Amino acid sequence: MRRVLYSLIPIYIFAFYMYGIRLLYLSVFVYGFGILTEYLFEKRKNRKVTEAVLVTCTLFVLSLPPKTPWWIASIGIIFGVLFAKEAYGGFGRNIFNPAIAARLFIYITFPNIMTQAWAQPGNFGRMVNDVMTTATPLEILANGENIGLFDLFFGIRSGSMGEGPIFLILIAAIYLIVTKTASWKIMISTFLSASILTVFLSLLAIPKLSNPLEFLFSGSLIFVTVFMATDPVTAPKNETSKWFYGIIIGVTAILIRSFSLFPEGTSFAVLMGNTFAALLDTAFSKKKVEA
Q1: 56-60, 97-101, 256-260: range with lowest mean pLDDT
Q2: Mean pLDDT score across all residues of the chain
Q3: What is the 8-class DSSP label of residue 277?
Q4: What is the chain's percent helix, strand, coil content, to nearest 5?
Q5: N or C: which end of the chain has fewer CB within 10 A?
Q6: 172-196: b or e for each residue (b if 16 or more CB lie within 10 Å)?
Q7: Phi (first) and psi of residue 202, to 5 degrees
Q8: Does the model's pTM come out above 0.85?
């Protein structure tokens, strides 16, 4: 968990540069209520708060739109820690990723706010370009417009606070793989399956998929692939299972993005993968030979 925190530090600093005090403001509430929720439940069992809650809080706050109200962010992290983690017995026992559960809960509960709480990024939250739109890249692509791979790769666009800097996310991915903190099989299978399906659907002339590479670089697909899909607690343990787990997430994310009313499908996709993780381990585990 500490290595994951280390890998998130550059992304957090970049998000601070892009959105300034807004990130710190939301972080106070997210870390405060997240740690407090786990403390209250772990105290009853004479156990301490784990570093895992810090990872959950960091991932959650980075997944938020910059103008998310503090009370919605607080409700989200309380729900994620309480119902997606502590209700299952605490760290190591939960079957759903708490940060994703928290994000999806407020996304569904407060859709009008969560789909409009964007802000122009850059220069510690101050406008850097008068013509920059607050629409997210996925919304821009849905309207048949282009964004530019340079801006997408270096995070010069609106969106959730931590999903933008792809170059930093890729550096974090390399660090997590080299230190054997996260599974490269899950990362590769998730992104590769999403890429193949995106290219296939683009050949069917779906408007929002007219530029497959921009489509893949938009939204939170890469951020979620590196940090959420690879969560060792909620992902399968069997090495073969990890390939199919990534495929479930990648395919589900693109299908929801392409055909549903939701502009982003990665949160739903991770929860779908979490649901099948144990089943995949069972299906691909070696059967014991009877004596």
Answers
A1: 256-260
A2: 90
A3: H
A4: 65, 0, 35
A5: C
A6: bbebbbeeebbbebbbbbbbebbbe
A7: -65, -30
A8: yes
